[in-house]
Write a structure and sequence with these properties.
Helix content of chain A: 25-40%
CATH topology of the largest domain in chain A: FAD/NAD(P)-binding domain
Number of helices of chain A: 10
Low-confidence stretches of chain A: none
Strand order of the largest sheet of chain B: 1-4
CATH class of chain B: Alpha Beta
CATH architecture of the largest domain in chain A: 3-Layer(bba) Sandwich
Order of helices and strands of chain B: EHEEHE
Number of helices of chain B: 2
Number of domains of chain A: 3
CATH topology of chain B: Alpha-Beta Plaits
CATH class of the largest domain in chain A: Alpha Beta
Oligomer: heterodimer
Largest sheet of chain A: 8 strands, mixed
Shape of chain A: globular
CATH architecture of chain B: 2-Layer Sandwich
Radius of gyration of chain B: 10 Å
Chain lengths: 396, 61
């Protein structure tokens, strides 16, 4: 199989956002090319792999067993002084995925829907004519190529270039990105609960997580806000934590990552859209990005089909993409961003006060909103403007 | 100019995301820095989770 000269849609990047864009567009009958610069899809991962059960079920009628590493029943948050806040339910409320399998499977779904998929194929620039994105230039196995398209979708992750090439400033300020490191540790006791550790000694303006990957394994990782970094690296902080807490564990995988905790960028232009991490759709408070990538990919695939049907690939035509994500991903991002700003300025003592106020209750609504509902109730000092945002239920 | 310790680098792309000049590219498992467009803000050095990037004394080419 070889690259065609022209497609309706080219999707750059085959993570969950890109694959879902390609799948959705192909199912709508479009001619789709999905490219991935790495030779394998889903590897190396750059992710803690946690995802809410409800949100995942919304996108997939069948959740395949092989996608799931562990079904988790809750989250335990430890404040700086060790106070436990537990959010749990008796049922499984979330999954820790096996991204290497999950991501590849989503790319297969895109292929099954009719998209052409090429790995080890990298976009190096956009073809721009009369102010319109008209395709990509790229390199595949050492050979340069050009492919035209009516719409190019940038799903190229935290290191996105598609937006920049189209003239959108996607640069993240150090205060808007978490610098992360993670180990897969084996030989440690884990329950089916995700653990979060807070504190400026542990992870300045970030957190340490331990997400179970089976009975005796976990993704143990850290994110630290870029603006809080000095000589001591996330890697160093993580090593300290692991040494203290998982002395007997064995590290069998090491990964690093940058997690956008910003507001979204501009996400569309003449003949182009951005999805997932490329659009900075990660949640600024949790750092979670999988479901927003999937959701935005579906929106982008749908909008691509509508615009091609109407023959309008202009910025004006593609604006409906933003309209669609603004009321869901956008509203949630906005309040999480403001909450992040509140939390990063809180000293450890403030986090402890918050934890003490709710450590006697079990929170059963496992979401940032569920947690904030209880916190706001018990802590009238939380700014009213911020509190108000969490009163409203945002449609997922 | 910025030098990369390739034996440390975990090719995560955090440095690419914070570069205001678009001077860094993550090619598969390989970071490339274009010294010509680098503005020496050192954001990449600061953000690296493992400290794989360093300011080196070599003059800018």
């Amino acid at each position: 199989m070889s690259l065609k000269n022209k497609y309706d849609v080219i999707v750059v990047g085959a993570g969950p956002g890109g694959s879902m864009t390609a799948k959705t567009a192909a199912e709508k009958g479009l001619n789709v090319l999905l490219i991935e610069k790495r030779q394998e899809i889903g590897s190396p991962i750059r992710c803690a792999e946690g995802v809410g059960k409800k949100s995942l079920k919304k996108f997939f009628p069948v959740i395949k067993d092989e996608w799931i590493s562990t079904k988790m029943s809750g989250v335990r948050i430890y404040s700086p002084d060790g106070t436990l806040v537990e959010m749990s339910d008796n049922r499984a409320v979330g999954y820790v995925l096996e991204r290497k399998i999950f991501d590849r499977d989503l790319a297969c779904m895109a292929a099954d829907a009719g998209a052409d998929v090429f790995t080890k194929t990298r976009a190096t620039d956009l073809i721009i004519k009369d102010n319109f994105v008209k395709g990509i230039e790229g390199i595949r196995l050492g050979e340069r190529f050009k492919v035209e398209a009516d719409i190019v979708v940038g799903a190229d992750g935290v290191e996105s270039k598609v937006g920049r090439w189209a003239g959108i400033n996607t640069t993240l300020k150090p205060k808007d990105i978490e610098s992360g490191a993670e180990y897969l540790i084996s030989g440690i006791p884990m329950e089916d609960l995700c653990e979060i550790y807070l504190g400026n000694d542990i992870a300045p303006a970030g957190y340490v997580w331990a997400f179970p990957k089976g009975k005796n394994r976990a993704n143990v990782g850290i994110g630290i806000l870029g603006s809080k970094l000095g000589e001591k690296r996330p890697f160093d902080y993580l090593n300290e934590f692991v040494k203290r807490k998982y002395r007997d564990g064995k590290i069998i995988e090491v990964i690093y990552g940058g997690i956008p905790v910003s507001r979204p960028t501009k996400t569309f232009g003449n003949g182009m859209m951005l999805v997932g991490d490329a659009a900075r759709f990660t949640d600024p408070i949790t750092g979670g990005g999988i479901t927003n990538a999937i959701k935005s990919g579906i929106y982008a695939g749908e909008v691509a089909a509508e615009c091609i049907e109407e023959g309008d690939f202009s910025e004006g035509g593609l604006k409906k993409y933003e309209k669609r994500w603004r009321s869901t991903i956008g509203e949630e991002n906005n309040r999480s961003y403001l909450l992040k700003e509140f939390f990063i300025n809180l000293p450890d003592g403030g986090l402890d006060v918050l934890a003490h106020s709710i450590n006697k209750i079990r929170i059963t609504e496992l979401s940032v909103r569920g947690l904030m509902g209880e916190l706001i109730d018990k802590n009238p000092w939380i700014p009213t403007g911020l509190a108000k945002l969490f009163k409203k239920k945002i449609e997922k | 100019m910025i030098s990369i310790n390739r034996y440390k680098c975990g090719y995560c792309g955090a440095c690419v995301a914070v570069c205001p000049a678009g001077a860094i590219e993550l090619v598969e498992a390989w970071i490339e820095i274009d010294g010509e467009s680098c503005v020496e803000c050192n954001n990449c050095v600061k953000i690296c989770p493992i400290g794989a990037l360093e300011v080196s004394d070599e003059p800018k080419k």
